Request: fold
Amino acid sequence: MKRPDSPALSAGDVSAWLLAHPDFLVQHPELVGRLALPPRDRGEGVIDLQGYQAERLRGQVDRLKDQQRAFITASRANHNTQNRVHAAILFLLDAESFEQLIHTVSTDLGVLLDLDVVTLLVEATEGEDSAAQQSAEVRIVGPGEIARRLGGQELALESDVAGDETVFGAGAGLVRSQALIRLNVSPETPSCLLALGSRDPEMFHPGMRTELVGFLGRVLERCIRSWLTTAGQDG
Reply:
């Protein structure tokens, strides 16, 4: 702030100071937008501030357009993913038997979600031979295997990985990113896990939102619980 006893600056003082500091507006470009600009045609030797401001505004517009395009692309991708997950959930709910539900998980989910490998893992109980119980549609893993991979998490997303045969079986070589979802069927059932694998290294990554894949897991665990309850009642 100018002191009360300081002499007033004249236009010549300002001009002289600017000439002595020719990079002032470069150092403070935000001031250009607040200046009253001269006409474009001012003769030789006059800097075209209007042109400078126009270039700055064009840069801002280009950045806004890039942000808008990125937002639209992300919105379309999210909408497409949401539609795929909803379709997959409807297939799970339409299963007419427990066997058909498991078959839907192992075969249809990959197509519906545009994934390369989808597997359902179930932990063997203590003393059971997990290798002897393997099937084409359910992978049996040793006790504690799911806790070892997820720790205390309900869901893990990993990018740029090499697929593990323990999780994905023969399709492990295709997997470059994965989503591992714990299924809490009931206290009486063994630990279960839904594994989604993609050849795209960034299909799943730690920074992505988890609501959709988490919801898919919650629906599947309820479907399994319902069929197991029905089977128990019939038995």
Notes: The first helix runs from residue 11 to 20. The CA atoms of residues 70 and 139 lie 39 Å apart. The helical segments are 11-20, 24-27, 49-94, 98-112, 145-150, 165-168, 211-234. The two ends are 89 Å apart (CA to CA).
